[in-house]
Amino acid sequence: MPESSPMTSRRRLVILISGRGSNMQALVQACRDQAWPAEVCAVIASRPDAQGLEWAREQGIATGALHHKDFPSREAFDTALAAEIDRYRPDYVVLAGFMRVLTPAFVNHYAGRLVNIHPSLLPMFPGLHTHAQALATGVRLHGCTVHFVTPVLDHGPIIAQGCVPVLAGDTPDALAQRVLEVEHRVYPAAVRWLAEGRVRLTADQRVEVEGEPPRLFTGSGMG
Ligand code: GAR
């Protein structure tokens, strides 16, 4: 449990996006329930034209945007990003389609408080074009992973996964849509466990879970 807020208050989330923001929307909608243990304090984008920013603004959520082109280096961008995030004193920083590689200094600053969702069953298919990669390799099972962020891209201790079948005739877009539906269930569940203090990252980089929440979700078509 982070030490920055008393146990009685809701955990503070800052969500980082780069585009559409449908996972951000799923999290915001979950937080609307006052019984939920977390609230979204801000949505910050890696580009000012990120589609999800407008939706967040319409919900009355504080927003911010930084453009990497305005900074001389990755380090300078990440330093400014951390300063913007820390204005909101978050307990957790939640990457939701945030498409930038983060520096080790940034990742270490939020150790144990920085989570990501990736559209594959990690450690399979890190990086981009995960759905096309899944189709190209012929796997019958695909999905998404919520994990703690470590300095290695798309790696890190796994909190929860969601799986869907790969169906005959699937295109990358059709598969992406099936995975996205399960993402919208897995991410709020995983963030809820974090906010409840049921899931944490240990010093030796293991995920420790209190109670036994269902850490594998199944999406449409799994029967
Ligand atoms: C989601 O599928 C998310 O898993 C993926 O980007 C999409 C963002 O959609 N993230 C990554 O690929 C990170 N490596 P959204 O903006 O609608 O949430």
TrEMBL record:
The yes or no answer to whether the keyword Ribosomal protein is present is no
Spell out the residues of the site Raises pKa of active site His.
Answer: 154
Protein's pathway: Purine metabolism; IMP biosynthesis via de novo pathway; N(2)-formyl-N(1)-(5-phospho-D-ribosyl)glycinamide from N(1)-(5-phospho-D-ribosyl)glycinamide (10-formyl THF route): step 1/1
Give the residues the record marks as binding (6R)-10-formyltetrahydrofolate: 74, 116
Q: Which Gene3D superfamilies match?
A: Formyl transferase, N-terminal domain
UniProt keyword RNA-binding present: no
| The enzyme's E.C. designation | 2.1.2.2
Q: Name one GO biological process term.
A: 'de novo' IMP biosynthetic process
* A Gene Ontology cellular-component term: cytosol
Task: State the name under which the record lists this protein.
Answer: Phosphoribosylglycinamide formyltransferase
Q: Which organism is it from?
A: Bordetella genomosp. 7
The top of its lineage is: Bacteria, Pseudomonadati, Pseudomonadota, Betaproteobacteria, Burkholderiales
Could you tell me the gene encoding this protein? purN
